[in-house]
């Protein structure tokens, strides 16, 4: 509970900062300095972390196998759950990263002592809502490219078109905005109401959820309620990406709030569990093939000086008894 | 062991979470939930630090004065050596997908047996010691200080993990708590916090070649005893050889198979099969342990014990190695052996002398699983099998964790089993194959004092077994792991009384029909074959 409250207060404070500050003549800080610093931290932090992982040796090939191995020719291999070639492993990884394959497998414990049985029901809720959350996030992110790409590429207008296909309200409602909020809300609710998940949750688990929710809500407020001046915002953003920052007047405070929270997310990213974005590609139980009997895997720090207790020493220890028992020996006593 | 409550009561697990945050809950050591510490002379023999007498139930664990530095330095070292550790420390999102997957959590309801929290025990120290942000934010960011209580907690929970990897299967990032447990145990060994049922077997394997410390002559005696039994049962005198130079194949199996029931029946099955095929195979007393207790200790001992296999194969000049029915042995063989002790360029790619099949899946390690070998024989019609010798058996299959999630060995053993018994039923799909449940005794936890916790952890396996027993009349559970053969009988007695545990080659041995053989009246357990009631008296 302490974690939840702390995280919520932290996000509220962070949201209040630009809302108050930007009006009080600090638009320049929030519109130029903060985003540059945040992006710099993100890029440097992300790279540092990934290099840190990648430069650490993976001593053993430890694939977690999820199906039948490559074996005799008449035994059907589960190629993508138990890959034995790099190609199959690539597909396994793609399924993992793009479809959340392992989460799809999720089950839920259902212990019914009265009936004397314990069952494991399929549970796809976490899979469904995480998928919804991550994909909406991705699409929203892509949609935002129109703010600094001129002319706006076809792909992005295409995504927008599909996204707003229902044509509800003015400005038209993006479906992903809805899915996005539903996704985060589910993840948050689960963290609060599932006792197991609640028990393991830290402030650092609640914080990114609140932060992302705040980003979504402030974005929605800007677009649908405050109906901010998009042309002015685009001017600001293009100024930023072309390294000629300008602060156009008439930008609503809600933009600075939204933008600042996004910057906080950038800067927070490399130091947090959000790095699972990079880490998922480096997980040795998933990105290695199960071919360790076929191909020798090399451990860079394998120590050749570690030798077995040798047969010769063993025989020295037991020679008489071995001879007596009629076991062959290398050296007679 | 304290008196165990009946299954109905044990099933009634309390899954509610405590009111206090987990960092404030201290572990409570009670007979039955921990294993006895390593004995000083064993530690001395192995050259492990801080040999002493100590008792986990007492306040003072007699840690070395500089234990904090030893742990932090060791942690730093492992983070540099293992990408797995580094990534697993960083990327867990605490989604809880793994939480209810662990048999020890399912059976105990103790939240620290949720794999995610088990890993957090280590991760909280990682954050506190090695990450800047968490150092500043402290508890809020899940960081904490390294105190003696943390070590006590590690001892409790990293020796309540059988490294079965079930959690890893479900984690969206493949975080493998078994790997974390492995490294946590390595760290604890550096300050003399360990358990005897791992270290004594390590010492024994090193010196005598097997975990029970059986000396070579005694090993041969036991083999002779089984050879006599085979003669009683089948009328055949099998003639296994030891240390025979120039043999084609070296055979290595877990030593549990030669020492205790029901493993010995499987052992007799091996001997019968080799005799049937007239296979050019030899045994070794020096490399007579397939199971690798080193892998429950640290990478050095894992490597050192495993190295005997190649060392002996080279000395004897065999062409390749066949391995028997064992779980951890195969995890180590499949995933580690070639890396640690290869390349085995003095051996040849295994090729069945009977069927000519080349085992390309073992072209680098040059070591195949006996079940692969047997499955190939059956497929090629090289074995005459009489299922009726196993009549009356309604069999189910226990997939051992290590051959399942560390190898992917599912269809070959089922194929063999279905060819030697008349009736076979699988347990419910969410408790078998890659989703299989542990026997509760892996990774060195099959010791006597841990029985109570092991039986609790056996809830999911036992319940699934009980289900097929009641529903389909299953009366036999077959498996290919020596730890299973040691622990599943107790589990079955408790959770599904009446179910017998067998190895696979025990059933093969029963079913094998030799040319011109005398009619068998008993199975390898010297029980009357069905329909031959009372034949023993008539003899
Ligand atoms: S499933 Fe993986 S990411 Fe989720 S809590 Fe467990 S270890 Fe962490
Ligand atoms: S490896 Fe097995 S015993 Fe260990 S935490 Fe995971 S599920 Fe539990």
Outline the fold blueprint.
The complex is a heterodimer of chains A (333) and B (539).
Chain A: H1 2-54, H2 86-99, H3 101-104, E1 107-112, E2 117-122, H4 125-143, H5 154-163, H6 175-193, H7 195-200, H8 203-226, H9 230-241, H10 253-268, H11 276-279, H12 311-324
Antiparallel strand pairs in A: 1-2
Chain B: H1 7-11, H2 40-46, H3 67-81, H4 83-91, H5 103-108, H6 115-130, H7 132-137, H8 148-158, H9 166-170, H10 177-189, H11 196-208, H12 216-234, E1 249-252, H13 256-259, H14 263-277, E2 281-282, H15 299-316, E3 320-323, H16 328-341, E4 367-369, H17 370-379, E5 394-398, H18 401-405, H19 411-420, E6 423-424, H20 451-457, H21 459-472, E7 476-479, H22 482-495, E8 500-503, H23 504-511, H24 535-538
Parallel strand pairs in B: 1-2, 1-3, 3-4, 5-6, 5-7, 7-8
Helix pairs in contact in B: 2-11, 6-10, 8-10, 12-14, 14-23, 15-16, 17-19, 19-23, 21-22
Bound molecules: iron/sulfur cluster (2 copies).
Residues 92-98, 115-116, 171-173, 175 of chain B line the site of one iron/sulfur cluster.
What does this structure look like?
The complex is a heterodimer of chains A (333) and B (539). With 333 residues, chain A is mainly alpha-helical. Chain A has 12 helices and 2 strands; from the N terminus they run H-H-H-E-E-H-H-H-H-H-H-H-H-H. Chain A has helices spanning 2-54, 86-99, 101-104, 125-143, 154-163, 175-193, 195-200, 203-226, 230-241, 253-268, 276-279, 311-324, and strands at residues 107-112, 117-122. In chain A, helix 1 (2-54) crosses helix 8. Helices cover 46% and strands 5% of the residues of chain B. In chain B, the strands form 2 sheets. Chain B has a 4-stranded parallel beta sheet with strand order 2-1-3-4. A 4-stranded parallel beta sheet of chain B has the order 6-5-7-8, with helices on both faces. Chains A and B meet through helix 1, strand 1, strand 2, helix 7 and helix 8 of A and helix 3, helix 4, helix 6, helix 7 and helix 9 of B. Bound molecules: iron/sulfur cluster (2 copies). The site of one iron/sulfur cluster has 15 residues of chain B, from helix 6, helix 9 and helix 10. One iron/sulfur cluster binds at residues 92-98, 115-116, 171-173, 175 of chain B.
